[in-house]
Amino acid sequence: PDWGVQATVSWLLSDRFGDESVSIVAEEDDETLSSSDGTALLESVVAAVNGCLVEAPKYGLRSPEKDLGAHDVLQAIRKCSSTGGPKGRFWVLDPVDGTLGFVRGDQYAIALALIEDGEVVLGVLGCPNYPMKKEWLNYHQRYYRLMSKVAPPTSGTWNKGCVMYAHKGCGQAWMQPLVHDFGMLSWHNSREVQVSSVSDPVSATFCEPVEKANSSHSFTAGLAHSVGLRNQPLRVYSMVKYAAIARGDAEIFMKFARGGYKEKIWDHAAGVVIIQEAGGVVTDAGGCPLDFSRGVYLEGLDRGIIACSGALLHRRILEAVDASWNSSTL
């Protein structure tokens, strides 16, 4: 799905803002699709892209005058070859963040951000399996999938997913249900989201990655205990963790990379601005803002990333990191 999403977003941005003025940093390249072994895969991607673009008028956007061909799709993917940097304007796209979540029918996100002179100014998170209503999160994914068959959900419930978005400096973040097989995009369905007001660690919930490959669960668990967190962690695939904090479903997200792993800007940019505009705080473990001006990686990151619903919790986590770091085996 990554190539299809990337080609679709690339084409729409170029059509809307002009081909020459759009620069995109994204995760995928066209090497596999362009190879002699990729013909069948390319055909399926082209079909998927055209199936998406025909729906564009539902969102107030333009569809192509005729179906895109293989060359057009490859060109759209190749356009996503910017390497970012400190100057100018560029988009940052993660076409499918949380591939395992996607494959398993669990949480994943489509993440798009706009960066101007190294600062994230716009963030959009599409979360197809993340319910609009918080109470659905109390059920295991398979259970509420079963429940939906027993009692078909109405418009706006969990199975519709949600989109969250924010613009830097507005002091507001917004959420609305996804548009599915019916209806048109309506801004009347949007509602403002805000971070949780919980400031006592005993009542707070923290998010962490599901997979252990690139992060240390043991270190975050030790930190959670040291600051008094007692709730079970909310283990969520992808940037949906940022969405959870922005709308108050959790209070803390901590990620400490294992040695040698470097964080990419597309895994964080959209989520950071959404949390900040919803009233939260996101820094590295040294308390410094994340630096999106140094290419495709978050260079200069101090140990890890900490996102919190408020300054008090954030400060306690930073203090706990300093107290625990030297004795850890991370």
UniProtKB/TrEMBL annotation:
Residues the record lists as binding Mg(2+) = E27, D94, D97, D267
Q: Which GO terms describe its biological process?
A: inositol phosphate metabolic process; phosphatidylinositol phosphate biosynthetic process; sulfate assimilation
Question: Is Magnesium among the key words of this record?
Answer: yes
- DNA-binding among keywords: no
Catalyzed chemical reaction(s): 3'-phosphoadenylyl sulfate + H2O = adenosine 5'-phosphosulfate + phosphate; adenosine 3',5'-bisphosphate + H2O = AMP + phosphate
Write out the GO MF terms.
3'(2'),5'-bisphosphate nucleotidase activity; metal ion binding
- Source organism, top-level taxon: Eukaryota
| Enzyme Commission number(s) | 3.1.3.7
Keywords in alphabetical order, please.
Answer: Hydrolase, Magnesium, Metal-binding
PROSITE patterns in alphabetical order: IMP_1 (PS00629), IMP_2 (PS00630)
Query: What cofactor does this protein call for?
Result: Mg(2+)
Pfam families documented for this protein: Inositol_P
The protein's job, in short, is: Converts adenosine 3'-phosphate 5'-phosphosulfate (PAPS) to adenosine 5'-phosphosulfate (APS) and 3'(2')-phosphoadenosine 5'-phosphate (PAP) to AMP.
| UniProt xrefs under NCBIfam families | bisphos_HAL2 (TIGR01330)
Family the UniProt entry places it in: Belongs to the inositol monophosphatase superfamily.
Q: Which PANTHER family match?
A: 3'(2'),5'-BISPHOSPHATE NUCLEOTIDASE, PHOSPHATASE
Please give the name of this protein. Answer: 3'(2'),5'-bisphosphate nucleotidase
